[in-house]
Amino acid sequence: MLDLLVIGAGLAGLSAALTAAEAGLNVRVIAKGLGALHWSAGTIDVLGYLPPSDAPAEQPLEQITELGQAHPYALCGAENVRAALAWFQSLIAEEGLSYIAAAGEANAWLPSPAGARRPAYLVPAAQFAGALDRPDPMLIVGLLGMRDFYPALIAENLGKQGVSARAQFISVSEITDRRDANTIHLAQAFEQPHRRRRFAEALARLVRPGERIGLPAILGLDDHAAVLSELQSVAGAPVFEIPTLPPSVPGARLYRALRSRLRRYGVRIEAGMEAINFAADGRLIRWVETETSARPLRHHAAAYLLATGGILGGGFSSDAAGRLWEVVFDLPLSAPPDRNQWFRSEFLDPRGQPIFQAGVEVDSGYRPVDATGQPVYDNLWAAGGLLAHADPLRERSLEGLSIAAGRGAALALTRSAARQPAHT
Amino acid sequence: MKRPTKRIDAEILVIGGGSTGTGVAWDAALRGFKVVLVEKRDLTHGTTGRYHGLLHSGGRYVVKDPQSAAECIHENRILRRTHAHCIEETGGFFVVTPEDEGDYPDRFKAACVELGLPCSEISPATALRREPLLNPRISRVFEVNDGAADSFLATHVTAQAAQLAGAQILTYHEVVDLLTDSVDGERRVTGAILRHMTAGDDIAVYADLVINAAGAWAGHIARMAGIDVRVIPGKGTMIAMNHRLVNTVVNRCKMPSDGDIIVPAHTVAVIGTTDEKVTDPEHLRIEPWEVQLMLQEGEKMVPGINRARVLRAWAGVRPLYQEGFSGDTRNATRALALLDHQSRDGVTGLLTITGGKWTTFRLMAEQTVDAACRQLGVQRPCTTSQTEVPGVEQGHYWLGHRLHEVEEHRLQGDLICECELVTRAMLEHAAAHNPTVTLDDLRRDVRLGMGPCQGGFCTYRAVGILHENAAAQEQNPRQDDHRLWNIAAMQSPAHPMTANRKTAAQTPAFEPNLLLRDFLQERWKGVTPILWGSQLKQERLDQLIYLSLMNANHLPDNDLSSPLTEFYRFTSVQDGEDPDAA
Hints:
The structure holds 2 protein chains of 2 kinds. Chain A is of the alpha/beta class. Chain A contains 13 helices and 21 strands. Chain A folds into 2 domains: 2-14 and 23-93 and 253-271 and 309-407, FAD/NAD(P)-binding domain, CATH 3.50.50.60; 137-237. Chain A is 31% helix and 22% strand. The model of chain A has no long low-confidence stretch (mean pLDDT 95). Chain B is of the alpha+beta class.
């Protein structure tokens, strides 16, 4: 019997699993797919823009309180968010991925793949030299033949915002012979020493003294640090990555680092296991069933943590009649009652779309509650993108919220387990 | 109004770049007239680009509207020859479901015989073998020669054929006034003032005859000459399903009504339509009940359809016309209406052609140009029924054509829209030969953004590519030569014409951030009525890409707008209530 079954392998689920494993719990992670990190830009965004005004958050940790009492960050508390981020930073560094608070307590501003200024709180070391407040001019280099990165567009938009940038190309054939390479294939191609040497030499021919070089975020997957350092030394210039369309290589690196960390604690991530059923005795969940290729499998645990990520992660489904439901436990959701109220008329409305605020309501201990505020199950916790009263993509708060709530929920359930030993 | 300095002289000025107007321009140019066609937006931006894509056999109207049916039967045969590559030979079924009681099937069968429409009754078992998703409870099935038509492609190749015959096509030019004068007390239309929608400058076009083929906007044009033409705008709402649920056109065998047709169109299936009288052809709102009705009715033909994924909803407006008609638009005739304003209103130099169906556009053009010849006092026979448009040598469209070419020539790495198999070269070719005011113009050319992700991945890529090419254009200006414009090549990933051309985009005042914002909003407008289930999840991924990753709402030039920006807005979502007001 497990101490904890975590459902969902995004940043919230993995943060929760690690926190619980560190506390000595016997943990398993199950997930339908590979987890939402493969979509992310790789940065840890804590709070970029404040709703409803869409004003930029310059001091994200301090300004968390401005989000109001219903927001899940209020549940975490600013000090716990800070502590969770410090915890994340140190453990991920031990796995060889360095994340930097690039602007101290403030947000760093980095180039987006469209050339907009993009706020981020913790920045992967590989994106650090792209900070837009540095004075050195940028050379943005694209791969001719790569469909997911447009350096001239980035350079022009940065130029319009007062950042000196120019664009150049190197043929994709310098790094791979594959005709249909996606970002992950390209990142793997950079791990071949002779190929990346050739690419680095081509960079050296393009760069002018004093420039820093921006490249698509494809500079290696497992051997990333070596790729970055070789490019910088051969080109003789700082090199930084700019995120690309998904699949995201920085996101994949983060996923791999967290997976490797979990393995040290003996925790496995079981991908391809979709939770399809469960059983409960009153307010106690007994087991969760997953679909596998052979036959349904039952997972028995003392505690369950739901981190399936809402609409995008697949934690919620919906239908034409305007019903929105939570797919594993059918938990009560806070949502606009009528489908006519789900959307605003503009795609980019700074206030966001009302439906994406929908989610699971939890008590102060991260347990999903019903309309009366009572926990639905005594051994179920929830964290991450499925929490109600936040729109993490609009606020640019997804990763901060996932780490803080994932860790917070795991700490809460660990304390609860210590008080009340698991049923055997 | 001050007369503009730019002036064009023509014999015939055609107003409207839909199927009817381009058909008229093609026909008139082939008969040797000097023709100018003007369209206020892109070709097919109006009703032609917003219909379900059915090439009518005529079966739908045999009982209710025999004149319209006879026109369809006649034209169906011709278009299969002249526009072969714009048509997929799907065939069509008229199915009798348990809901369709009464004697209609027998009347249908008799009317087909009477009108000479080839129709054979097949057993439900045979029909189910061919279309396994059909309702197994259907009792009778009639097979006819319906087809699926690509109205974007057909209109563009017809326009190209007109250009090759000497016509001049002016898109993104709006008619702001008709020029009129009076000779011996007789009022005469002598041309029109056009305004360039992006540059803003005006052109005076003088013509011996003006042909009003503005469709649902024809009344608006006629009013400029003081003539009252009451086009009855009948809004039809359609929805596209994520899969091609049937390979045959499926019609209910009953009096035409809402939601009784499923058309396999390229990779999707379209359910149509509603028919609602509206007042404004420009701003059409999709009501939730219309989407519900399409799914509910579709269910009777293909059970389970309302659990399938819906990609998009849109509406077009039929330019129906019936002298003195007032009533439900469903009962207005679908037959063509040619108004000679000389005999009708005592105004010479103006004809209005409206009504009709996409299937009958060539016939409408023939009759219109015949009338033009009479008014101009010349005799020149119509040749369109014997003239093939460019690209017809490709033969009929078949699903899998693009995939076949991509695999054959290993073009997987060149795809910039994986949903619809659009390569970079196809996009570049389209952009080089068509003015690109919005990415929607390229969507109509190559189906960019029409698949499941609704522009999630390809919007950014298309903007990036056009931006790269616009920079190249400054160094190497493009040459205008419509003989190089090969629209058939745009449909073919491996067409040598596409692969070899690296011409800069023809993009006036290129603003990449505006292109991006406009297209995201254009796609949003058509998905909000159907966002639930998997498509809602997909939309959230698109939000991740454009909000969290791109930060597209904080790009420079946020205040710029295009001639289409306003069109892509809708003041309300579904019910007209702001969510905040609730």
